[in-house]
Target: ABC transporter permease
Amino acid sequence: MSNTEYSFTKIFWKKLRRNKGAVFGLSIIVLALLTAVFAYILAPDATPDANRIIVEIAAKKPGYKQQFIKIEREQQNNSSVSDLFFGAEDRYQYIPISSNKQTGNRYDVEKFVDDGVTEPLTFTFPGQQKENPIVTKTFWLGTDKFGRDILSRLIVGVRVSLGVGLIAVAISLTVGIFLGAVAGYFRGWIDEAILWLINVVWSIPTLLLVFAITLALGKGFWQVFIAVGLTLWVNVARLVRGQVLSIRELNYIEATKAMGFSHGRTIFKHILPNIMGPVIVIAASNFASAIVIEAGLSFLGVGVQAPQPSWGLMIKENYNFIITNNPMLAIAPGLAIMLLVLAFNLLGNGLRDVLDVRS
Model:
């Protein structure tokens, strides 16, 4: 049995590696997963939700450099391991400056207020300084209208996209497989009732249904995940129902009935394992759909709420800059959504070919 499983796994990966599109998609997904896990280690702004607001440098273009003087805050929290994965409040206040002059522990600076506008300030640091309070930061993708680093929010925002996809797919598979298997196996009035429910849900536009569920559950992080998941089960249920209808008439299923096996054992041990190929393919498709739906909801204001970074919310906050002098503020999250959705679609197509799933 183990040799058979090993051979199947070996053949599966060998076929998948031949599909360049699937390999590219899988590479992007793995990179996104690693980025999501180590987001606050990779992000230049490691505050929770990458929400360091510096209004003086709002809406700056990619590659913008700015000098700051760091002022230590009075209240400091001891750092912990969890800060590496969930972010930590800033130990310092970052004040943008145009120039500085040091005299011992005294710094005379010109605070940057706006282009061509400065304000003279003086700071005195008691005792021996452990580190230079003057730092220069580069904002590789620019800053948004609140002066937050776009790159950092883009990195942290990948957690939302992958999280909504994972939870939505889990919910859609659980509901869809159960209802589809029950409808296809028992048929009769059970099949008719479930099929009627499928057709009703299928007839409602996806975004409209998500709006209704979101308004019922309320706005928020987890509510969006659940709402998206409850709209994607229909595809799974229709697919599973059709597969079960074709398999339940095969001889080995008839044999399980003759041997007195329970319906549950027949469905979960003898039918579902033989239809998982098509289910895996549609799961990849649903993952991509969930990312797009979440982005659309956040753009419309009923998805993830500020200050939590969501790629759709980032587009909403900065879309007006597309027709002004800084379109990258909205283009960058749009490209991120497109790349991640493309990766899941390419992987789904590759899995379809490897598992020999007929559309």
Remarks:
- The two ends are 30 Å apart (CA to CA).
